[in-house]
Amino acid sequence: MKKFYIIGFLILMLFDTLAQISFKLASIHAMPLTFDVDWLFRVFGHPWIYGAFIGYIGAFFIWMNLLKHAPIGPAFAASHLELITVMFLSIWLFNEPLTFTKVTGAILIFAGVCFLAKDEEESHSRADKKVADGKCGAK
């Protein structure tokens, strides 16, 4: 995988993680949930909601740039690695429990991303070999 992809996905993961953690912090500070103007003032009066906006806007621009260059299958899978970072940060910041189910899910997500990346790498190797052997379909 190209260095560009790795750096891009790390930045994407950072922005996505920032957005999710910021939403959690904003929701905690905006409680109790009431459907009125006071609740909206509590939400938008707290700085973490703006961290969430920054996270989503940053993730959007990084994602659009990655999609121009990265293969869609592994890119889509890798874009969900923030589930793992959010899980670990939630354990640390919010004292959420680390359960067997969460660990198993994180391992499966990571393994799925690795398998998709490996498959994409092998597909490109086969295509490059066909081109080198002159078997690319052009006569």
UniProtKB/TrEMBL annotation:
UniProt cross-references to Pfam families, sorted A to Z: EamA (PF00892)
Keyword set includes Lipoprotein: no
Record's bilayer topology term: Multi-pass membrane protein
Positions of transmembrane segments: 43-63, 75-94, 100-117
Gene3D superfamilies: 1.10.3730.20
Gene Ontology terms describing biological process: lipid A biosynthetic process; lipopolysaccharide biosynthetic process
Residue intervals of the EamA domain: 27-116
InterPro entries xrefs: EamA_dom, EmrE-like, Small_drug/metabolite_transptr
Record keywords: Cell inner membrane, Cell membrane, Lipid A biosynthesis, Lipid biosynthesis, Lipid metabolism, Lipopolysaccharide biosynthesis, Membrane, Transmembrane, Transmembrane helix
Keyword Ligase: no
Cellular compartments per GO CC: plasma membrane
Localization annotation: Cell membrane
MF (Gene Ontology): transmembrane transporter activity
Protein's UniProt name: EamA domain-containing protein
